[in-house]
């Protein structure tokens, strides 16, 4: 089988192109946070007096339709950037459900939004690049499993090999290890305690299968070897990213 056209994670783009796509995605999220910030200010500026109490103190509300439009956009963004299980999403959703129209209700929601924006742009809760790459790697491994299911073990192993190396490069960045050949990164990461020697040996074995696939030595490993490699790399990516 001709494997020259097999691409790196992302399915239809080489690594540099995928990295550009990831950077564009992050830039788009940051831009969306800014847009929703502007909309939040517009919602607050549209506040109106609902009633004045006996002490002549006005009580303000914000337009319900404007709030719901803004809040729906925020929920969608928080879902994409942090996930439904995050504290940011859960807190905002709870306040959205409890919204009664008062300015104080809006300000509570606005505070959660601002905290989420600061955490995202500051990178305090996660590494944006790693998160973006994890999604790309997941897509690549899904493709690898589909290829296996169709009887194409060789390109499946190449995709898994690329995913494996990309995962180690991200991990190397976190541990301050210089990017280089897979074997060197694997050894250095083991020395630093990123994982144990058993996992190091397994990674070496998977890398060898991937190399054989890339070099056309397709008779040197079986379909069962390929399945074990793809499943193993999938579990490793989920564990380390």
Structural summary, described in words:
There is one protein chain. The chain is mainly α and 241 residues long. It contains nine helices and two strands; from the N terminus they run αββαααααααα. It has a two-stranded antiparallel sheet with strand order 1-2. Helix 1 runs antiparallel to helix 4 and helix 2 packs antiparallel against helix 3. The radius of gyration is 24 Å and the shape is elongated. The N terminus is likely disordered.
Enumerate how many helices there are, as a single number: 9
> How is the largest sheet built, in terms of strand order?
1-2
- Tell me the series of helices and strands, N- to C-terminal: HEEHHHHHHHH
User: Based on CA inertia axes, which overall geometry fits?
Assistant: elongated
Which stretches are poorly predicted, pLDDT < 50 over at least 5 residues? 1-19, 124-132
DSSP strand content: under 5%
The biggest beta sheet reads:
2 strands, antiparallel
Tell me roughly what share of residues is in helical segments: over 70%
Distance between the termini: 32 Å
Average pLDDT level? 83
Which terms summarize this structure?
241 residues; mainly alpha; two-stranded antiparallel sheet; 9 helices; elongated; disordered N terminus
Element layout with pairings:
Elements: H1 15-45, E1 48-52, E2 58-61, H2 64-81, H3 87-97, H4 103-122, H5 128-149, H6 153-175, H7 182-191, H8 197-214, H9 223-240
Antiparallel strand pairs: 1-2
């Amino acid at each position: 089988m001709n494997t020259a056209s097999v691409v790196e994670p992302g399915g239809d783009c080489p690594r540099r192109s995928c990295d550009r796509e990831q950077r564009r995605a992050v830039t788009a999220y940051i831009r969306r946070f800014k847009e929703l910030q502007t909309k939040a200010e517009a919602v607050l500026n549209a506040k109106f007096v609902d009633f004045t109490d006996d002490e002549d103190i006005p009580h303000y509300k914000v337009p319900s339709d404007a709030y719901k439009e803004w809040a729906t956009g925020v929920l969608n963004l928080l879902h994409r950037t942090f996930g439904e299980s995050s504290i940011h999403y859960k807190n905002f959703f709870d306040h959205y459900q409890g919204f009664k129209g008062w300015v104080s209700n809006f300000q509570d929601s606005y505070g959660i939004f601002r905290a989420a924006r600061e955490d995202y742009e500051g990178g305090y809760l996660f590494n944006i690049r790693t998160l973006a790459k994890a999604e790309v790697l997941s897509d690549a491994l899904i493709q690898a499993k589909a290829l296996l299911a169709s009887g194409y073990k060789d390109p499946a192993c190449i995709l898994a090999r690329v995913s494996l190396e990309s995962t180690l490069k991200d991990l190397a960045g976190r541990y301050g290890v210089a990017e280089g050949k897979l074997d060197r990164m694997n050894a250095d990461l083991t020395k630093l305690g990123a994982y144990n020697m058993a996992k190091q040996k397994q990674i070496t074995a998977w890398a060898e299968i991937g190399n054989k696939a890339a070099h056309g030595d397709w008779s040197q490993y079986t379909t069962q070897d390929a399945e074990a490699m793809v499943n193993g790399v999938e579990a490793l990516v989920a564990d380390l990213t």
